[in-house]
Design goal:
single chain, about 450 residues, alpha/beta, Anaerobic Ribonucleotide-triphosphate Reductase Large Chain, 2 domains, 15 helices, about 40% helix, globular
């Protein structure tokens, strides 16, 4: 007879039923390198057929695994090879048509999101990239499940400031085309510095050209598990004890993710890829990264000390999680999206959390400025300036940073945007009123930092 520890069983049940432990996403990474052709419709049909071939059972099998192990799997997703690469050889390529065919396939197989409507332009544009940028807004406005991303810089190449400005234009136009739904199109678009190729989280997931034909990547969650554990510690416990506890919780969370990921990959008959250790919050109370900060002793997210709290959290999550899996990848750390975290929303509404403070926090978190709503009349140049600042943090610190910002057309400070589901709701946050226009319009490429010359 197996020797079960009663306390461990009770703890596991509490983690799932009370503290919102879940598998945030199972993401099927799918290479489209064999879908290239010189004709848009041929390419689109090849992509459609390949998605159906590999992903038809993804949702059904994930549901079976969820029921078998009683661990919720919140989202089922697909990540594709960057479409700008796949379709560039098409004559007069129609990226919007391809986007709609991808969306159709996503609906057919029943996934929640599909990523990979992407471009990599950190050193410059090809003709196809320029055409792709022009069509992103319409593609996002005319689809439901499609997500888009662009990589604007790396620590090796510097930052493409021409692309930064074009990206700001894309965000604003996408917001305008979806203004009847609180500009939700912009919530499905993200720009990166140092994008990773095995990220299972949207909107930035894509299958890099160096990835396998197909693989299953897992994104775990569990901020509620971590915050509840810290709350049970004595208030006088020192940071060494706090960090050790976070490591233990991260190990347990990651172990659950590893189990589910390998079981589902085997069932789908595809390789297991990576597990992303990121603590991803939801709009539910008790499932918040901001509440971890409170449990550590901060009155509110954004109070002085928040950046240090996040740095320790991120480090401890990685140290604990890495021991539970040999294949850790993606972004890994702690997400700090405003709209998707009830505690972050509260802090933003109270004025404790500002864009400037969030920017400082991104120097130590797992990605960057995420799901931030700003006034709809914010100038493109200001949006470009916000993006440029975040790209600088990524470039200099040799880490992945990103911006997912939503100028909500027709709304201003004091109002909020409602996106629904995991995307939640977001208070409209104040931006710096002073202009960045002359600076961002200089264009060209910001040179890579000196530490890039490390061959």
């Amino acid at each position: 007879m197996l020797n079960f520890n009663q306390q461990q069983i009770i703890e596991t049940i509490k983690m799932i039923k009370i503290h919102h432990l879940d598998i945030r996403t199972t993401t099927l990474s799918l290479s489209l390198r064999d879908c290239c052709s010189t004709d848009t419709k041929t390419t689109a049909n090849k992509i459609y057929d390949k998605i159906l071939k590999y992903a038809s059972n993804l949702v059904a099998f994930a549901d079976e695994i969820e029921n078998e192990y009683s661990i919720p799997i919140v989202n089922k997703r697909i990540a594709l090879t960057p479409i700008s690469l796949v379709a560039e050889s098409c004559e007069n390529v129609d990226y919007v048509y391809i986007a709609q065919m991808i969306d159709k396939a996503a609906k057919e197989v029943g996934v929640d999101f599909v990523g990979g409507f992407s471009a990599l332009v950190d050193k410059g544009f090809t003709k196809g990239d320029l055409r792709f940028f022009e069509q992103i807004p319409e593609a996002l406005a005319s689809t439901n499940k499609l997500c888009s991303s662009v990589n604007l810089g790396t620590s090796k190449a510097g930052v493409n400031m021409d692309a930064v400005l074009k990206t700001a234009e894309v965000i604003k136009k996408t917001a305008e085309l979806t203004k009847d739904n609180d500009s939700i199109g912009a919530a499905k678009f993200v720009c990166f510095c140092n994008a990773v190729t095995d990220n299972p989280f949207m909107a930035g997931a894509f299958c890099g050209v160096n990835e396998a034909e197909c693989a299953l990547n897992i994104g775990v969650s569990g901020p509620g598990v971590v915050s509840s554990a810290i709350e049970e510690l004595d208030k006088t416990a020192d940071f060494g004890e706090v960090a050790n506890l976070i490591k233990k919780m991260a190990f347990k969370i990651t172990t659950a993710g590893e189990l589910i990921g390998r079981k589902l990959a085997k069932k789908l008959d595809v390789p297991f890829g990576v597990i992303d250790l990121s603590l991803a919050p939801t709009p539910l109370r008790g499932d918040s990264v901001a509440e971890i900060f409170k449990a550590m002793g901060l009155e509110q997210a954004g109070a002085h000390g928040t950046t240090m709290a996040l740095a320790m959290l991120n480090d401890a999550v990685k140290k604990g999680g890495i021991m539970a899996s040999s294949y850790v990848g993606g972004l890994s750390g702690a997400f700090i999206p405003v709209s998707e975290d009830a505690g972050m929303i509260e802090a933003a509404n109270l004025g404790s959390l500002t864009i400037d403070k969030l920017e400082a926090m991104t120097s130590v978190c797992s990605v960057g400025l995420d799901m931030i709503a700003i006034p709809g009349d914010t100038p493109n140049s200001t949006i470009a300036g916000i993006i440029a600042d975040e790209m600088a943090i990524g470039m200099i610190n040799k880490k992945t940073t990103a911006v997912r910002i939503i100028p909500v057309i027709g709304k201003t400070i004091g109002q909020s945007a409602e996106f629904g589901g995991l995307l939640g709701s977001a208070p409209i946050m104040k931006v710096n009123p002073y202009s960045s226009e002359v600076f961002v319009n200089r264009g060209g490429r910001i040179p890579a930092p000196l530490h890039s010359l490390n061959n």
